[in-house]
Amino acid sequence: MDNPLLYATALASAVLALYSYSVFRRRSSAIRDISGPPSPSWIFGHIRQLILSAPYGAHEFKWLDVYGSVYALKGCFGQERLMVADPLALQHILNSPKFGRAPILDNTASLLFGEGSVITASGGCILFSRRNRAYVDADVWTEAGSEHRRLRSALNMGFTAAAVRGYEPVFKRVAEKIADQLEGFSTATDICSVLSPATLEAISQAILGHPTQELGEDFVANNIEIVKLTASHSETHILADAIGSYVPTWVWRAAIYLPTTGAAVARKERSFATQVGGRIVQEKIDAAEQGLEMDNDLFSLILNPNPSDNTKTLSVEDIIAQIALILIAGQETTARISLKANALAFGLLELARHREFQDELRAEIYSNLGANATNMAYENMPLLNAFLKETLRLYPAVPQPDRMALEDTAIPLGESITTLKGERISRIPVRKGQLVTLAIASYQRLASRWGVNPHEFNPSRWLDGKTNQGDAVGPYANLLSFLGGPKTCLGWRFA
Ligand code: HEM
Asked: Where are the domains of the chain?
């Protein structure tokens, strides 16, 4: 299509179709009656303010103060969205089969990791492809849910408290390497460029049982490229996501063959993961057949399951299908290269800002290392635990994941709200297809939950018992940094 008139006509038709669709949905949506900030733009809605503002939350936390823990926002092209930081509502959405990941998240995941990974087996993609044909089939949900449970149950073997304790020698080696590197720097340095490869090293050794150099330079370089791509945000990305969410799943599946940088990196990742993963798995199978002792990395654990329990058995293909996901999911969230959300970098930044606390924490760690240098007793280190919780609370790596209602339903609220019509409601009716943003960063700054001055870094809030824990919401300290419900981060103990 090299005729500019054709381009203009195609673009105008797409914009008109999006506009008509958004008007149609707006007329029939209950979200219209929920208060929220006025939208600055029809094309971007509030998304630029939500995602691109610096420092993080510049707009979001003001909206939280003004509109409370549930309010309406506009997405791109006039789309209605609901922001939810109410603990009961979050807990409901995360645990209800009536909500799934937003199609754009699922489709991106399947592009990067293929169809066989635990994250793509969770039902979303299958459901969304059916939804494109305007129906949701309960049997499909159950089938996809059970495939997700099967993979999770088998993989979980490598993420139990005992298994993660088994990885401690790896963590220690990697931590010593980071410390050596940092001691060698005499000027200001980009900490993310040190932490990101170190995290990949820890994951590679603990999960695959091989140091990164054995994965091959090309695989490692491509992995870093993917982490950079998935961490970057711009107006172009926002628009591409918005348009991509209207694109059917079969088009996404074909997108892997596009001649774009993103598709090329995704293609390489999947091909490297299959080749390298296949080689590593085969080596382990050969070692087991020769009666050699298996290592205690995740792959060796999975390949050597309890034969009496066949629910925990994974095929070689199943195992290989998890490699790209685990390398990227762990690295991207723990030590992301972008400064938007990097748990480790933000933790170090807060230590630099709070020198007194830094000294106390160092003293606590040294005194425990002295007592038992090979086996760290984390439970005996209250300051370290408080530091980790406070860092994860203030800087969730995934601060605003989207969910979508898979059928007409209602979201219960812990605190009732007044609608624009003046009605007091304790449940918000939502229509099938409604997008809901889980406002994790806002939830983790609710004064009602975490005590006074919730925007301040103050680890002692965890020590003096002033955090109101309420109902269990997330897996760790009631935080939602690892999300919650059946799709809780598999690697939260590892992280
Ligand atoms: C601070 C570090 C980490 C954070 C904040 C984090 C956060 C998350 C979040 C929010 C999700 C859910 C995504 C969604 O459903 O939309 C997730 C899923 C996942 N994470 Fe993590 N993660 C971290 C580290 C890790 C590590 C180190 C690993 C593995 C070594 C890992 C493996 C996974 C896997 C396999 C899933 C998919 C689970 C499923 O769909 O059932 N994560 N993570």
From this structure: 4-101+401-444+480-487, 161-394
